[in-house]
Automatic annotation (TrEMBL):
UniProt keyword Amino-acid biosynthesis, yes or no: no
Any one Pfam family match given in the protein's UniProt record, by short name: Astacin
Binding residues annotated for Zn(2+), in chain numbering: 146, 150, 156
Name under which the protein is recorded: Metalloendopeptidase
Highest taxon of source: Eukaryota
Disulphide-bridged cysteine pairs: 115-137
Length: 250
């Protein structure tokens, strides 16, 4: 059985429309995709898919952009997707209507309040692999690239099974409904790559904080918890690119 693993990139809107932080998690809304009591919630926080059946077949992925995107939004998607061909062997090729016969394609759609996608190739699904994005998400190629990494099979960096060797999570400063976002998974792989504080898949140091003046994630240096910046929205780190290169045997 294949889990329908959901990409965790949805817009969080708090009172007045301001995000808790400007980390990548400020674009996420977990209520819109899985309930906190979902039996599969833990499986949806893995760092990288291990099943070869959930990797996209071949190294060319076709994508289509909705006609309700503005010219700038279209340009941002194209910029984000072209970067994969520059840094990995994965090529994203745009189509106007449909992919070649027998090939699935990624469909970039617009949503008023959600940004998200399923994680990895879905071998038991039919039709396009949807990526939904708000106007806010579409303004930033780095956020679009975060989604592309999800659809290729990556999850969040702080969910690595060896996470506790590199960061300390302050659960007292995190609402209990978000605790599962910080669980680690043992049945996954890190490809033996170093922990990447600068990954576009890593939450910021104040992610989901009850008190935003205090970190929820601290780095461990020599066994001591220290405050440092982590995560970003500029785009994939070299570690992110390396995972894709290894996963797809580039």
């Amino acid at each position: 059985m294949f889990l329908q693993l959901v990409g965790l990139l949805f817009l969080v809107v708090l009172g007045g429309g301001s995000a808790v932080s400007e980390g990548i998690e400020s674009y996420e809304n977990y209520y819109n995709e899985i309930h906190v009591d979902d039996d599969e919630a833990e499986a949806k926080t893995r760092n990288a898919l291990t099943s070869p059946l959930q990797r996209w077949p071949g190294n060319k992925i076709y994508y289509r952009i909705s006609t309700d995107y503005s010219e700038q939004e279209v340009a941002n998607v194209r910029t984000a997707m072209s970067s994969f061909g520059e840094h990995t062997c994965m090529q994203f090729k745009e189509v106007q209507r449909f992919a070649p016969w027998g090939k699935r394609y990624v469909y970039f759609k617009k949503s008023p309040n959600e940004c998200g996608t399923l994680v990895g190739y879905q071998p038991l699904s039919f039709g396009p692999h949807d990526v939904v994005l708000t106007e806010r998400c579409l303004k930033m190629p780095g956020v679009i690239q975060h989604e592309a990494l999800h659809l290729l099979g990556l999850f969040h960096e702080q969910s690595r099974p060896d996470r506790d060797e590199y960061v300390q999570i302050d659960f007292d400063n995190i609402p209990e409904k978000y605790w599962w976002q910080f669980k680690t998974m043992d049945d996954t792989t890190t490809y033996n790559l170093p922990y990447d504080y600068d990954s576009v898949m890593h939450y910021s140091k104040n992610a989901f904080a009850k008190d935003p003046s205090k970190p929820t994630i601290r780095a461990l240096v020599g066994g001591k918890a220290v405050e440092r910046d982590m995560g970003q929205r500029r785009g994939p780190s070299e570690g992110d690119w390396t995972k894709i290169r290894i996963m797809y045997k580039c």
